[in-house]
Amino acid sequence: MKRAANKFYKNFKDREFRFMLYAVWLISIAFFVSQFPKLSVAFEFEKFFADDNQDKVFFEKHVEKFGYDNDYLLVAFENHPSVFNTEFLTKVEDWKNRLDTIHGLISTQSIFDLKHLIKSPYGIAAIPLIHSQDSARLKSDSARVMSHSLYSNFISKNAESLIIQINHQHFKNPQNELVFFNSLKSSLAQSQIKDFRLVGKLVAQQSFIDHIRSDFSVFLGLGIAVTILLLLLIYRSFNIMLLPLLMSVSSLIYLLGFMAIFRIELSILSVLIPPIILFVSTSDAIHLVNAYRQNEEREYLNRLKGSIKKVFSPTLLTSITTALGFFSLLILPTQPIQELGVFAGLGVLIAFGVNFLFGPLLIRKNYKSQSIKLPYKLWALKLSRNRKTVLAVYIALIIVSVMGFLQLKTDAYLLKDLPKNSQVRNDFQFLDSAFGGSKAWEMAIFPAKESSSVMSYVFLKEALKIEHYLKDSFGIEKVLSPLSVVKYANQISKGGASQSFQFPEKQDFEDQKSIRNLLLRNGVASGVVDSSRQYSRFAGFIPEWGSHDTQERNHALKAFIDREIDESILEARITGTTYLIDKSNESLSLELLKGLLLAVIMISIVLAVYFKSFKMMLISLIPNFIPLLFTAGIMGFMGVPLKLTTAIIFVVAFGIAVDDTIHFLGAYKKQKAKSPIWRIIKTFKSAGLAILITSVLIIGGFVLFTLSAFATTFYLGFFLSLAMLFAVLTDLILLPTLLKE
């Protein structure tokens, strides 16, 4: 490899060779830029479900029965002082009736769709639930609706808003999804109804996509601008600044081009990749530039070869270890995380190749020697004299950090990532308050014996226990199930009075069989009972409690079922998108920490081989664990929960932070002074400035992310900046102390 490298760099004197290399560089850049139109931004909740998860397998079978529970939109229309106004109701009903023209709509549920069924001498008669254009009948209609536990699901508690649930197709094509969503918003804009709120997966998803797209373009541009500014301030030379800048931008273009070719969508995680590559590539270039400026050879080719020889091995090692850190994410069975691991790791290796292949083309013969003088000797001597103090301070900080770390808990509030003044966030909160929830929640219930029916009395009596628990203890205000059909049949047989909407006695249950069968045949219960009548569900909406609280409630519900429900009659299993999102957040956060552990193991092996010393390998890991512990401690004290987008910080921080440690130890290894203190002084002189510059650039770049109103971006920027700051301080304070013997 060395022979090939020497031959390659020897050709740099040849103009034709340099021209050919320039041509390859520019043509390849043009090709990859041409692929950019294929890049797209997406955010699908379902993609974060673990592929081999048993809950997901069960959910997919459940979907075959009832469809995706998240394929809905809720439209809340407001009217003061009451929605029971003929003019208002007429406008809303007219709008609802025009929805049939929108491609992708499956059905709607509202007070306009429901019928009040009563038993008459001529059979069962269906009466409109609401007479929107008849003010004389509207008063009695409103009394019936508000007093009925099923009908009132569609009216707020203060009767100032009503809700229409829109069930749509499960869109596999994002373009079709966007067309449907825009058509619906267009129809609302044309409805002449001013006060309305729109919530659901498509709304939240589109809001996340808009923030991801905005943050990606804004902060990537700002990152490049800050890199230029800081490099100019540090080097005070346009020519020197140009090399790190062009190498980082080129590496980024190559990576984004590859992502475009493979049609990788930019998600809430993959938008991390560009800044990572931007900063890592800049770091590689800075080490090369500084090595060249420190080299005192007069002949250009010898100076170039000597500089490359000095930093090639440490930079290759840092690239391999950082890439391995990201590749460790492949063990997680979730597509967005695997994509982050693959392309971040690939980007790091691309950055290495670009820097050493094209970087030397930009190095000018007349680069001045390094002019920045830092008090390396004074700093090293102070550390040597205060070794015990340094160790004591770090031990104290570690103890405090552990205390903070123990306060960390896994939790996620999806909508809290949106800005506080976000209309989408406010709309979801309004529905949680006015209608008892905006997030779908469901539980599958089925007979323990395959031959039994979900409509048998003994099965439904067990299900009734669960319903009471859901309403009295769990916190679901409105829930549909096979019990709703039974109660409705009882109401019909008892003359249609609202107070008769209740579970009947056994004799009445037997007498009402024909009514229930009629309801089932007419599809009234198709949303809660499957066609075989051997599988059913509880379906309702819950507020945004947060994943931790929701999981606690789910655990309590499972304990109740184990304790109170006869498992020889009824089996139950919580399922649905909300359940999978909450559970995936908890499991993936912990799995990411396992991925970090795997990264540590792989990197340890590489470092042990490189340094040929178990002791040096341990010394190299300690300065990279401590910043992670400090960061976790601060997260704990701040009450920031551990979730997917905060847990990923530790993997990214470790992957980047280990670079400076390796460069420091690589320089230390090459020093020939016998005294440890002089080896440290020479190491500071050799690698200290490059470490400082790269750290300032990385911290400055990630600090920009804290300007975002999108909480996910803010926390990523804030905690990555902190971790990088702790990492460079530990490399310059604790690491030399550990090396001093």
How much β-strand is present in the residues? 5-15%
Mean pLDDT: 89
Record the strand order, biggest sheet: 2-5-1-6
Distance between the termini: 36 Å
Helix count, per DSSP? 24
What is CATH's topology name of the domain at 373-406 and 613-740? Multidrug efflux transporter AcrB transmembrane fold
User: Based on the structure given, which CATH architecture of the domain at 373-406 and 613-740 is correct?
Assistant: Up-down Bundle
Q: Tell me, briefly, the overall form.
A: elongated
| Percentage of residues assigned to helices | 55-70%
CATH class of the domain at 373-406 and 613-740: Mainly Alpha
The unreliable regions are none
Number of strands: 10
Helix-and-strand structural type: alpha+beta
Query: Could you tell me the radius of gyration in angstroms?
Result: 32 Å
Q: What is the fourth-level CATH superfamily of the domain at 373-406 and 613-740?
A: Multidrug efflux transporter AcrB transmembrane domain
The biggest beta sheet is recorded as:
4 strands, antiparallel
Short summary:
Keywords: Cell membrane, Membrane, Transmembrane, Transmembrane helix. By secondary structure, the chain is of the alpha+beta class. The protein contains 24 helices and 10 strands.
Verbal overview:
It is elongated, with a radius of gyration of 32 Å. It contains 24 helices and 10 strands. Strand 3 and strand 4 (123-128) form a beta hairpin. Among the domains are: 373-406 and 613-740, Multidrug efflux transporter AcrB transmembrane domain (Multidrug efflux transporter AcrB transmembrane fold, Up-down Bundle), CATH 1.20.1640; 439-542 and 545-575, no CATH class. The chain is an alpha+beta fold and 741 residues long.
